[in-house]
Specification:
Largest sheet: 7 strands, antiparallel
Number of strands: 16
Radius of gyration: 40 Å
Distance between the termini: 41 Å
Number of helices: 22
Shape: extended
Helix content: 55-70%
Structural class: alpha+beta
Length: 707
C-alpha cells in the first residue's frame, strides 16, 4: 500500500490543506518540513482518523475537538469536517508467464459534523466511504473497513503511523505493558491473529460435536461427561477473559507506577530534597553491596562442606595411621622403588660397582650377569604393589596438616564465615532501618506533593499486586480444569467406542483435535521462527543506525527480542543495558525505528511508514545514519521534520526525496516569521519550498540570522 494524496477540511489547524506523497520506487521519501505547532501531529492524527475513525484519535476521540479552535459562529452552526485520502494497493494475477503485478487506486473519505454551543461542542458519528478509482470513474466499495483493515490492521497503527515520542513505548514502558505492545505488534503484522481466529472456530466446532455426542444414546455417564465438558468450555472462556483482563489491568498499574515514580524523582530535585535523594541513593548502594557480600558469604559457607579440609579433619585418626606407615616405608628406602633402574644400568656396563667383571664373554662375568638379571625379574614381581604404594605416598601428602595451628582447621574456617554472616546481617538491618527512616523523612516533607505521590504510589502498587494475584489465581484454576478436560475427553472417547453410533462422532472429534493441534503447532512455529528474524534484522538495522561496531569495543554491542517479547540491549561482555536509563535519546529513538522497520520488512507487508519527528534528539553521524537506513528499509517513507532535524541532512534529501513540502503556521508572526502572512485565522499554510529554500511565506527569523 502507498499513500498518494491527502486533503483535510476543517480538521483542527488544517482548514484547507492538501498533501502529495512520493510514490516513486527510487525516490520513495516524502518530507513535510514544519516547525512545532505547525500541524505535524494533527496530520498524523487526521490520516489515522480517515482510516480507523474515532478509535485512532487521542483518548479514542472522547472530548477531542476536531474543528478549528477559533471558528467563529453567531449562532449554533454545524461545522463540516473531513479527511480524504487516495492510496494504491498492489494486486497480483496469474499470467502465462507467472505472477503479474498491477496496482489499484482507492479513495477513502471520512466526514463528520461538529455543532458549537457556547464553549461546548457535539460531534455526529463519522461517515466513511471507500471508492475504487478507475478510468470509468469511481465505484463504491462496501464495507470500506474490510479492505482497510486487511491492508493496515488497526493493531498496527502505531507501527505504520508513528509518533516519535509515543513509539518509545515499545522500549521505555515497563513490565507487562511493554511486552504486550511488542508482542501484539509482532503477532498482528505476521498475521498470527488469523490462526488465533481459526483456533477459536475449531474449538467452537469441537463444542458442537461434543453436544452431538450427548444425544447418541442413553448412557447416563456419557451424558454427564459431555455436559461437564460443555461447562468446562464455558468456564475456560470466562477464565481466559479474566486472565487477559488481569494482565491488562496489571500492565496499566505497572505503567502508572513507573510514571508516578518519575514524578516523585522530579519532585525530589528541589532545594534540600536533593541531599535527601542523594542519601537515599547512597543507602540503596550500601544495601546492594551488603546483599552481594551476603551472597558471597553464603556461597563460602556452602563451599566449606565441599572442602578437603572437612574430609581431612573428619578422617584424621584413620589417616594418621596410614600416613605413618607410608612414611616408615619411605624411611626404609622401599618407597619409591629404585632397584630395577640401578640393576638395569649395571647390565649396560662390563664391570660391577664392586669392581668384579660383568663381561658376558667371561664365564664368571656371565654368571654375575645372570644373577643380576634374576634379581631384576624377582623385583618386577613386586613392582606393581610398590608402584601403588609409591603413588599413594605422594598423593596422600596433601592430606597432611602443613600448618598445625587452629586457624587451618575446618571448624575455625566455619566459625569465621558464620561470624562474618552474622555481622553482615547486623549491618544490613542497620542500613535497612536507615533507609526506612529516610523514607519517613521524605513523606513528612510538607512543601512538596511527594507525600501525596507516595500515597498514590502505594495505592497503585496495591492495585497492581492485586491484579497480579488474580492473574496467577485464574491461571491456576484454568490449568486445573484443563486437567479435568483431558481426563474427561479420554473417558468420553472410551464410551463412544462402545456406542453403535459413537464411531462417527469420535472420528469428527479426532479430526477437530488434529486440526487444533496443527494450528497450535503452526502458531508456535511461526512465532518462534519469525521472532528470530525480526530480532536479527532489528539488531542489524539498529547497529547500522548508531554506528556501533562490536569488533571495536562499542558501548552498545547488540539488541534482541527475547522469547517473551522483551526488547533487550547489551553492552560489553554481554552485560544488559536498560534502554530507558542506559541509552541516550538518540539511541532510544533509533532502537524504536529499527524495531518498526524490521517488523515491517520481515512481514513483507508493503505499507507506508509515516513518522513524526523521528530525528529529534539526534545530531551528526547518528542522525544521518538513521535517515539513510530508514529510507533504505522502508517501501514508502513519509517524515515530518523540523528545520533542526533537517540540518546537516540536506545532501541526503537532495538524492533521496521525491517530494518536499513546507508548512507554516501564520500565528508565528511576528515572533518567528519574518513576513506577515496576512491571514487572521489559525490555520496551516502550504508552500512549495523544499529543504533548501524559503519564501516570503515560510521565511523565519532564524533563516535571516543564518544569512
Amino acid at each position: 500500500m502507498k499513500l498518494i494524496r491527502a486533503e483535510f477540511e476543517n480538521f483542527r489547524l488544517l482548514r484547507n490543506l492538501s498533501l502529495d506523497f512520493s510514490t516513486d520506487s527510487t525516490k520513495k521519501l516524502t518530507v513535510i518540513r514544519a516547525e512545532n505547532e505547525s500541524g505535524k501531529t494533527t496530520i498524523l492524527n487526521g490520516l489515522q482518523w480517515a482510516l480507523y475513525g474515532d478509535e485512532a484519535l487521542p483518548g479514542k476521540g472522547r472530548d477531542y475537538r476536531l474543528h478549528p479552535i477559533d471558528w467563529e459562529v453567531s449562532a449554533e452552526e454545524q461545522i463540516p469536517i473531513s479527511v480524504q485520502m487516495d492510496f494504491e494497493i498492489p494486486k497480483f494475477r496469474q499470467g502465462p508467464r507467472g505472477l503479474v503485478e498491477t496496482t489499484k487506486q482507492y479513495r477513502i473519505v471520512r466526514s463528520a459534523y461538529e455543532t458549537l454551543s457556547g464553549v461546548k461542542h457535539t460531534r455526529t458519528s463519522s461517515t466513511v466511504r471507500l471508492f475504487e478509482l478507475t478510468d470509468r470513474g469511481s465505484e463504491p466499495i462496501e464495507p470500506p473497513e474490510a479492505l482497510v483493515h486487511e491492508e493496515l490492521p488497526p493493531e498496527l497503527r502505531e507501527v505504520f503511523f508513528t509518533d516519535g515520542d509515543r513509539a518509545l513505548s515499545f522500549i521505555e514502558t515497563t513490565g507487562v505493558a511493554k511486552l504486550n505492545s511488542v508482542r501484539d505488534a509482532i503477532r498482528s503484522l505476521l498475521g498470527l491473529d488469523v490462526i488465533k481466529d481459526a483456533l477459536k472456530h475449531v474449538r467452537k466446532t469441537g463444542s458442537e460435536i461434543n453436544k452431538a455426542a450427548k444425544a447418541i444414546g442413553t448412557d447416563e455417564t456419557l451424558t454427564q461427561i459431555t455436559a461437564r465438558l460443555e461447562q468446562i468450555e464455558i468456564e475456560s472462556e470466562a477464565l481466559e477473559e479474566k486472565i487477559e483482563d488481569s494482565k491488562l489491568q496489571f500492565a496499566s498499574f505497572d505503567q502508572k507506577l513507573s510514571e508516578i515514580q518519575k514524578e516523585i524523582e522530579a519532585a525530589l530535585i528541589r532545594g534540600d530534597q536533593e541531599k535527601l535523594k542523594r542519601d537515599i541513593g547512597q543507602v540503596k548502594q550500601q544495601l546492594e553491596k551488603i546483599d552481594k557480600l551476603q551472597t558471597r558469604a553464603a556461597k563460602e559457607h556452602s563451599d566449606l562442606f565441599k572442602s578437603p579440609l572437612l574430609l581431612r579433619d573428619l578422617l584424621a585418626p584413620v589417616l594418621r595411621k596410614g600416613l605413618d606407615k607410608l612414611s616408615d616405608l619411605q624411611t626404609q628406602g622401599k618407597l619409591p622403588n629404585a632397584t630395577i633402574p640401578v640393576l638395569e644400568e649395571r647390565l649396560k656396563a662390563t664391570t660391577c660397582i664392586c669392581g668384579e667383571s660383568l663381561d658376558p664373554s667371561d664365564t664368571k662375568g656371565k654368571q654375575r650377569r645372570d644373577h643380576i638379571q634374576c634379581l631384576i625379574d624377582e623385583s618386577r614381581k613386586v613392582d606393581a604393589l610398590q608402584g601403588r604404594l609409591t603413588n599413594l605416598y605422594y598423593s596422600s601428602r596433601s592430606l597432611e596438616q602443613e600448618d598445625a595451628t587452629d586457624s587451618n582447621r575446618w571448624v575455625a574456617k566455619y566459625e569465621e564465615v558464620i561470624e562474618r554472616r552474622y555481622q553482615l546481617e547486623g549491618v544490613r538491618d542497620e542500613q535497612g532501618k536507615k533507609f526506612k527512616a529516610l523514607e519517613i523523612q521524605l513523606d513528612r516533607i510538607t512543601d512538596t506533593d511527594v507525600q501525596g505521590l507516595r500515597t498514590i504510589q502505594r495505592d497503585y502498587k496495591n492495585q497492581r499486586d492485586r491484579f497480579n494475584t488474580d492473574w496467577v489465581k485464574y491461571e491456576t484454576q484454568l490449568e486445573e480444569i484443563k486437567k479435568q478436560h483431558r481426563s474427561l475427553v479420554m473417558q468420553r472417547e472410551n464410551l463412544l467406542r462402545q456406542q453403535r453410533r459413537g464411531a462417527r462422532i469420535l472420528a469428527r472429534l479426532e479430526v477437530a483435535s488434529d486440526v487444533e493441534r496443527v494450528l497450535n503447532n503452526s502458531y508456535d512455529r511461526m512465532t518462534n521462527e519469525e521472532l528470530v528474524k525480526v530480532s536479527q534484522l532489528m539488531n542489524s538495522i539498529f547497529l547500522n543506525m548508531i554506528g556501533a561496531d562490536p569488533e571495536q569495543g562499542a558501548i552498545i554491542r547488540k539488541a534482541e527480542i527475547s522469547d517473551d517479547f522483551d526488547i533487550l540491549v547489551y553492552g560489553p561482555n554481554d552485560r544488559p543495558l536498560n534502554p530507558d536509563r542506559d541509552l541516550n535519546g538518540a539511541s532510544r529513538r533509533a532502537l524504536t525505528l529499527a524495531f518498526i522497520l524490521a517488523l515491517t520488512k520481515v512481514s513483507e507487508v508493503k505499507a507506508p511508514n509515516v513518522i513524526d519527528t523521528p530525528l529529534g534528539m539526534m545530531s551528526g553521524y547518528v542522525k544521518k545514519s538513521v535517515l539513510k537506513t530508514a529510507i533504505r528499509e522502508s517501501s514508502q517513507l513519509i517524515l515530518f521534520l523540523t528545520r533542526s532535524e533537517l540540518a546537516d541532512c540536506e545532501e541526503i534529501l537532495d538524492a533521496e526525496a521525491g517530494q518536499v513540502i513546507t508548512l507554516t503556521n501564520p500565528a508565528h508572526y511576528p515572533r518567528m516569521l519574518v513576513n506577515d502572512p496576512e491571514v487572521k485565522e489559525r490555520m496551516v499554510l502550504r508552500c512549495e519550498c523544499n529543504h533548501r529554500e524559503e519564501c516570503g511565506l515560510c521565511q523565519r527569523q532564524m533563516d535571516v540570522g543564518a544569512n
